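Quick one: structure for this chain?
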Amino acid sequence: MARISALRLTAATLALAAAGTSNTAWADCATTTAGDGIVTLACGNTITSSTINRSGNNPSTIANYQAIEAPLNVTIGSGITITGWGLIVYNGTQPASTTSRPLNVINNGSISHTVGWDDPSESDGLNVGTNSGPIRYSGNGSVTTNGTANATGNFVGSTALALYASGLGNSVTFGSLAVPVSATFSGESGIHMVAENSSLDAWFAGGTITATRRDFGVSALSIQAADTMNLTMTGGTVVTGGIDVSLTAGPGHSASSALTVTTDAQVTNSYVAGAGLTASSREAGANVTLTNGALFNVANIGVLLSPIGGAARFTTAAGTTINQTGTTGAVRTGLWFSPTGTGSLTADLSGAINASGTGMLLQPANGNASVTIRSGGSVSGGTAGIQVLQNAGATGTVTIANAGTLSGATAAINGTPAGTAFTLTNSGTMSGTVNVSGAAVSGSLFTNSGTWNAGTGNSAFSGSMINSGTLNMADGAANTLTVSGNLVLNAGSVLRLDVGSTNAATDKVLVTGTASLAGGVSALPTSGNFTPGTYTILTANGGVSGTFSPLTTQPNAQARLTYDANNVFLVLVSTTGFTASSSTSERVMLNAATVTTNTANAYSTRIIGRIEGGTPLYNQTFAAAFADTSVQNGVTAARTAITAAGGPGIIIGAPVRTASTTSSVTTTGTTTYSLAGMAAVTTAEVLVGPNSTTTGQRTVCTGISTLPGTTLPTCGTGSPINTTVVSGQINTNTNVETTYTIDQSRTDTTTTTLNETYELNGQVVAVGTVHAEVQSGLFDLSGRLLGRLAQVEPGRAGWADAYRFRVSQGGQRDAWGLAGGISLPLGERLTLAAGIGHGNLDIAVPGAAESGTVKLTELGAALRFDSGGFGASLAVVHGFGDAGTSRAAYGKSDARYDVRMTGAALEMGQTFDLGGVTLRPVAGIDWVRISTDGFTETDTLGLVVGKQTHERARASAGLTLARDFGPVMLAVSGRYLAILSGGERNVPVAFALASARSLTMTGPSEPDTAMLGARAILPLGKGVKLSLAYDGKLGSGYTAHSGNLGLSVAF
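Got it. Here's what it folds into:
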């Protein structure tokens, strides 16, 4: 960096001596090195001196030059002020470090160079540099300098903030997208940022950047990078002295390195050779966008785009303005496109460009230039709106499309394009001459569908032209439009011309090719009155086809158009006299109808009665609300119909609204018409002969006198007279038009109908299901003692069992009981057994509000035969008991009745000893018959049930595996039980009040089931054994779980 002279040191020392003794609040800067080698430079209020600090652990330093060869974090806190020689921070080395050394600066205070030094190496406010890593700057602190380096003839001026990163890959970042910088920067140059061989990103949000010197090479904001560059400015940053951004071709540059600028800055530059914004890009191009609110006020150039190859894209949003106001600058233009080689331009303009010189200056070489002025956008120049300059040999094309406003005091467009094509399209308003010639234009096209005000001088276009809009040459002076190609004037187009007293004083169109005519001509005198004569208004060397229509003159004159092969002539004829005539006409004008709307309410209520969603038993619609007596009578009738069809065992719910819609019908009333007023307007119609007009009563209206009424007056043809105006006459016809204004009013009625449907639904409750469940419960209990006796063991013993089981089959049946018996041998192969048992079973019927209990006592005997491993047993059982039921539906109904059962079972099996494991296949068949006494339930709606008898037969087959584990024997078994007959559970019932109406209550049928069991037998002493058993049965919709605790004593 800079050398420190003795003179500077002396000046700084004097400044410190003067300030340091009077303000004890001033503190020095300090450097500290962390364990990871990162150095922190933190400053308090400091007056720096022109000295150097190289230590990373300096507790107190006032040196302005901090040369720290390490990663460095610089912090200037809020409220901190650094004055004197400002601050220079550098952490690079020679040669550059191979390990990245980031240099981060956070400035929230105030840094100023205040000694006014004129050496550019040491007159900056804050100078940050490195060759060994990236630079990142953030914070909203200010940086200023009063240095005058540029004033003494140095190439580089004194800069408020300078950020310089050299070395490959060392980028510069200023602020961030999330936290942009908003601060004050002021010096001969405001900010100068360089990423010599890498990328640079900068974000601003408001603040001010000021260059106090206006000179060559001095900008308020100057940015240079080799790789991709991004500059984003929001919040209306105030820039005094211009913006200069450029991409260089350093080692860090690549073909994809692009330049992007997005700004709404308020830029001024009064330097006569300066620019508001200069953007120099390379092959990847540039995107420069002025967003809403951007304002450029400059003396010389508003925006200068200089792409070296690549595409420069320039966009202005609505609400942006570029004002070039200087009168002595070398270029003086709002937008200057000055590329190198194949550099191209795409300009999309929705804002305003105003220039005292040229609105836009286009100088493409071998790249294309395309300019689009959007509706609402404008380009204007004190000389030309757009100037096109191309050197000979250029290959780029030029395209200009105006949908907004394009104007120039002398020319809308001037130039001599030398490229391969030129296209001009106007659909907006273009004012000023068009003088474009050159090799690129001769085969190109000028299309006008808007308005071209060309009457400021002569125009010449070296190509063809198509006009579908207004071509206005009238300005009170004679002008010539030369089209060096073909001319097409489409239907609907207008050619406006000045007509003088001679041919030479009249506007004319000269076409070197053909002229195709279909539009109109409007002629205006240059002196207020037409001079009779014949005037040539168009000449086409290639021939004229078609005719103009219509021809109008202002003021009206007797005129016509004549044609020959190559010319169009306007012939004005002198008048020979004046005539007068009169006419009347009448018309009716209707005022908007005044409508009064009355409202009325109506009802349509439908009552439906049905049983369990079936076919309606009652279906009537009433023209009344639901609460009306007639509708409530319909509800009562629906209940009666449901009860009659469903009998006493029917529940009828409250009416439920199932549909509700509203429909409105508006009836239009009769319209009444009345006369609100009448007005007469007199107009003078001037016609130049030869012509004709209609005099007399042109139109007449009838029915006016009958108002007010319901019939609308009508108007039709009266008694018209066709009057001829002969050649040379001017006729003035006075027409009086009477307008009758008619009021119209009517009253409409809107009827709103509430359409509702209510349904009453009867439900037949399945009462008495519990009695079918009693049957199932009896079969459940009867199988316990019968099955136990059929599986009696041979030998002499007494036994006792306690059991509990639960059956889930739609509802739930829970039971518990006790059983006991004795077995006695009758010889070597026969064993006789007898037993007794008692069980209790509880029944719960879901959804029917019914429950029941069954108590059953059983007596039985069995005879067993054994031979070798084969064994067979026959058991018979008889039981008796009672059942009790309770029902909560239709009141409280109870019943109690006796039950009986008889059953028999035969079972046989063969035992195989498989070396410690006993295998026993078994098969069996059982039969049970149950009977219940007839009964009548209590309560008025009780059921009457007769005596019932039901039988069930089952067959089964299975397998048992057993093994001794010491004194304990464990066994598992599986068996399939098939219902042979009697699986259904049906009970005929009738209500006591309607005994003739019989219902059949059905319980779930008993399905085939698979039974899995496990058993453990534990010896408790001599001849005494304890057994524990579990059995589970599974079938379709059926599950049962039972547990058994048994004790046997051999004697």
